[in-house]
Amino acid sequence: MRKLGPGKLVIATHNAGKLNEIKGMIEPFQIEAVAAGALDLDEPEETEKTFAGNAALKARAAARASGLPALADDSGLAVTALGGAPGVYSARWAGEKKDFAAAMAKVEAALADAGTEDFSARFVCVLCLAWPDGEEALFEGEVKGALRFPPRGDKGFGYDPIFVPEGHDRSFAEMEASEKRALSHRARAFDQFIAACLAP
Ligand code: IMP
Fold it and tell me: Does any domain span residue 2?
């Protein structure tokens, strides 16, 4: 696998929550993380139906536009009893105003409509590293857990207040960043990225 040497890496996301987590993970390495927003890069429309497709689309666009390697994250919450929804549409369930209280209420209502007692869910993350010459690599991570209502905690972002990872009794939003880092779908995908592209 092609290694990433010291230098700039574009983090191809406009999502502040993801950006903070990825910057924290990259910190120990000799890589300068540059946010897509800081380079005035556009946010491409997510037209694919899979996490991998959307991650590649975002990384490719940022690498082409910047002439630098770019890392994109496509992720979401997949609820078992909802057939994997909201899935790749997790951000869109929050609407234009990015109202995640509304998105979490929508998940709760959908589970009530389904009349199910199965509240199992998982978070999925696919990272894509794209190079300006067109080479790409994908890394996937997931974390299993269960949804719990009402939402609890004010840390993290997105659906964190309703997601309790397996083996734990607090939601991601009730955990410190370091605790979420040890468990999360993003961290698991990132660890694979490190092993393949950053480790000597
Ligand atoms: P996208 O990858 O830009 O389509 O957005 C993914 C969406 O999934 C985010 O806006 C969040 O709503 C949700 N999501 C992804 N990762 C997490 C996480 O670690 N915690 C909470 N929500 C997440």
Answer: no
